[in-house]
Write a structure and sequence with these properties.
Blueprint lengths: L12 H17 L4 E2 L8 H5 L17 E4 L2 E4 L19 H9 L9 H10 L7 H5 E9 H9 L4 H9 L3 H9 L9 E9 H8 L19 H12 L2
Antiparallel strand pairs: 1-2, 2-3, 4-5
Helix pairs in contact: 7-9, 7-10
């Protein structure tokens, strides 16, 4: 059986490594489970250990050869001696055959210590420390209707922040209409949970309020709360 998943972690690389740590624990806890991970850069676990990779291992040869199994990294090598040829295929490796090799006690596939070291160091505090090191709670002034939605589905804050951070002139036109969440009618101050990268993306950009927003003065003690809320709501 095969289970697949896709995650949009945006610019928060810590979230990507949190996923790695979870999958590592799953492969350690459940016998026979094998995991493979890649992102838009490819086999990013290998990128982390790039200084220690064998000469044969590159993007053209890594397909179906890099896995997490039994809580550690495994690499299916190319054959280096005639005795290895029946065990380790030299050409394209199909996934079923690769999984058999990873699980076989007769095939030494555990990654060398030099490759494991930088990956293990990156995962050393995960997953236990993830919530304390990456999660951020920010007070935001937003319409009550939006507050209800975020309480029901807090993950929606991620696409909202992404839409704000990657906005273009076409998206900004939608800001002027404010058809879904009308500010000022029934607003509340609520705590919104996000990661620290998202908070920095909201806090770090200057953005002029669309029509309809009545912001306090920039020196007002509530300015920051209103500013965060305005940016969340603006690209509704």
């Amino acid at each position: 059986r095969v289970a697949k998943g896709v995650s949009r972690f945006g610019d928060c690389i810590d979230d990507e490594w949190f996923i790695v740590s979870i999958l590592r624990e799953i492969t350690r806890e459940f016998q026979g489970v094998v995991a493979s991970l890649y992102d838009n850069d490819g086999e990013f676990l290998l990128i982390e250990a790039a200084d220690h990779l064998p000469s044969w291992l590159d993007p053209s040869t890594s397909a179906n050869r890099v896995f997490l199994y039994a809580g550690t990294l495994h690499l299916i090598p190319l054959p280096t001696t005639p005795a290895h040829i029946p065990l380790f295929p030299s050409g394209q490796l199909l996934l079923p055959r690769a999984l058999d090799l990873i699980r076989s006690p007769m095939a030494p596939t555990a990654a060398p210590a030099a490759i494991l070291a930088p990956i293990t160091a990156r995962l050393s505090s995960l997953p236990s420390a993830a919530l304390s090191t990456t999660r951020h709670r920010a007070l935001a002034h937003i319409p009550r209707s939006l507050a209800r939605i975020l309480r029901y589905d807090p993950q929606l804050i991620s696409p909202a922040v992404e839409a704000f951070y990657t906005r273009d002139p076409i998206a900004l036109k939608a800001c002027q209409r404010m058809e879904t969440f009308t500010p000022g009618r029934d607003d509340v101050d609520v705590v919104v949970t996000m990661n620290r990268v998202m908070f920095a993306q909201l806090k770090g950009q200057r953005f002029h309020p669309p029509k309809g927003f009545r912001m306090p003065g920039i020196k007002d003690k509530d300015w920051g709360v209103w500013d965060i809320g305005m940016k969340i709501v603006s690209l509704e």
